[in-house]
Design goal:
Helices cover about 35% and strands about 20% of the residues. The chain folds into two domains: about 190 residues, Rossmann fold (3-Layer(aba) Sandwich), CATH 3.40.50.450; about 130 residues, 3-Layer(aba) Sandwich (Rossmann fold). It is an alpha/beta fold. It starts with 6 loop residues before the first strand and ends in an 8-residue tail after the last helix. The protein has a seven-stranded mixed β-sheet, with helices on both faces. The structure holds 6-O-phosphono-beta-D-fructofuranose (F6P). The site of 6-O-phosphono-beta-D-fructofuranose has 13 residues, from strand 12.
Length: about 375
């Protein structure tokens, strides 16, 4: 009798980020080369298991995708089997349809479901695991805010794009003696602002973790002006907020598990600063530019390492884990740990201390 082939499902969920295709490629190629496995690509994240939308992935389907941004499988940052949005009498209500979805997954007869995603995706992956599905998680997000791993793929590319934008905006800010505010993504974590702000030489870096004081920012900008630096570069995270104030919400996505989409704090701050200082101020919101395009070399490498490590766990039948990076080592972390919250920038992070040491303000002095 012919031995049943190993069958592995792969889905990409949550906001897309550069490197997703590199992980799909790594997982699928290693499984096909070493174990002649069957790879089932699940379309549009958890929406694919809700609506039974799949496609078989052959070796040639996953060849030539290493450098592609986005995801060949599609994604959704809304679909959630445990909180499925439906409209009833014109209102959105949420239903737990996980029992049906688990049956859908069981019909696929998978030996493992690889869930590539951020905190929301992996929290759902953990619930599926508890409900009997053999899940392995792979950490992705430009925000770098996942617990259990030092770094996520996508972050390096986003930091490069943001740094490049800051470099470009420096010369126009200088030429016009303006305040230039660059708003970057990151939700409630300031990693992108911190890294790109330091790499781009931002004069002021505003993070969600350190509420800012408008008077302090004004004093810093005026101080620079007096010294002869007639322009200032402010890098602000979309989740930054003033002391005693709140985040600025760009949009509420009713059907999403995390409904608030942040954005707009850069413009609010810009108007205040222009009014108080009289210095012309411009704001640039980088937005989804940070998620697009080809992954950086570092992200391609990380995605390949994480993808192949995930296959090791599948082969050892070690389910319920996310693969991650700790120091220089690849590790496995239980999904329960990952689902506990978000990895924010610690207030005593060494990069904050280095930046302060070279005169950068975090808006709190
Ligand atoms: O989590 C990734 C991310 O890009 C965040 O940085 C940002 O706040 C959010 O997704 C934007 O979501 P959407 O694509 O739904 O606007």
């Amino acid at each position: 009798m012919q031995k049943k082939k190993l069958r592995v499902g792969i889905l990409t969920a949550g906001g897309d980020c550069p490197g997703l295709n590199a992980v799909i490629r790594a997982v699928a190629k290693k499984l096909i080369i070493e174990q002649d496995a069957e790879i089932i690509g699940i379309k549009d994240g958890y929406d694919g298991v809700i609506r039974n939308r799949y496609k078989n992935l052959s070796y040639s389907d996953v060849s030539g995708i290493l450098t592609l941004g986005g995801t060949i499988l599609g994604t959704s940052n809304i679909a959630n089997p445990y909180r499925h949005a439906v409209k009833e009498n014109g209102k959105v209500v949420f239903k737990d349809i996980s029992k049906e979805v688990i049956q859908n997954i069981k019909h696929l007869d998978l030996n493992c479901l690889v869930c590539i995603g951020g905190d929301g995706t992996l929290a759902i992956g953990y619930k599926l695991f508890r409900d009997g599905i053999p899940v392995i998680g792979v950490p992705k997000t430009i925000d770098n805010d996942l617990l259990g791993t030092d770094v996520t793929f996508g972050f390096d590319t986003a930091v490069r794009i943001a740094t490049n934008a800051i470099d470009i905006l420096h010369s126009t800010a200088q030429a016009h003696h303006r305040i230039m505010i660059i708003e970057v993504m990151g939700r409630t974590a300031g990693w992108i602002a911190l890294y790109s702000g330091i790499a781009g030489g931002g004069d002021i870096i505003l993070l969600p973790e350190i509420p800012y004081d408008i008077e302090g920012i004004v004093a810093r900008v005026k101080g620079r002006s007096k010294r002869g630096d007639k322009f200032s570069i402010i890098v602000i995270s979309e989740g930054a907020k003033p002391k005693g104030g709140d985040v600025v919400v760009r949009k509420m996505v009713e059907s999403s598990t995390i409904q608030a989409r942040l954005g707009g704090v850069g413009s609010v701050l810009g108007e205040q600063l222009e009014d108080i200082t009289g210095i012309e101020t411009r704001t640039v919101v980088l937005g989804h530019l940070q998620r697009g395009g080809t992954p950086s070399a570092m992200d391609r490498i990380l995605a390949t390492e994480l993808g192949t490590k995930a296959v090791e766990l599948i082969t050892e039948r070690e389910f319920g884990y996310m693969v991650g990076v700790k120091g220089r080592a690849l590790v496995k972390v239980h999904l329960e740990e990952v689902a506990k919250g978000s990895k924010l920038v610690p207030l005593k992070h060494r990069l904050i201390e280095s930046a302060r040491a070279v005169g950068t303000s975090f808006g709190d002095d």
